[in-house]
Design goal:
Blueprint: H1 16-35, E1 47-56, E2 59-70, E3 73-80, E4 83-86, E5 89-93, E6 96-101, E7 109-116, E8 119-126, E9 129-137
Length: about 150
Amino acid sequence: MKRRKLASHLPLATSHLEVVPLLLLLITFAAPALGREKNPKPGPLTGTWECVAHGTSRGDLSFTLTLEQTGETVTGEVSSPIGSTEIANATFHKRALSIHIESGAGEPYDLTGTLRKGELSGQWSHGAEKGAWNGSKQASPKTEKPASE
């Protein structure tokens, strides 16, 4: 295999001592640009939601969803008088929410719902039990107005 000679008008480093400063210069200017990650804006589900599951074997059951949304991915936890746990899997696509919660003993809980005008509503299921649910997002501390004295 024949090696081609680079054109003589191109500057070439002849030693490692000449290459190192060039690399350091490139890293100095490239690193800030590469390190800059865009912080994605939290999705509309991010926050605390006070909810009610209607038609459970215990009657209407209040529960709280604490959600974080990035794109279509939703994470968080659910808490109720029965207990609290992490959400196993959740997605949000085209205003449709789907949440899967492992109960730890027996059948999982599944919630599906739609976000309309800042409210969530939909259906829940747990084994053979099924019903409707709805929830309202609680104001975040950043958006609450101070109380008048």
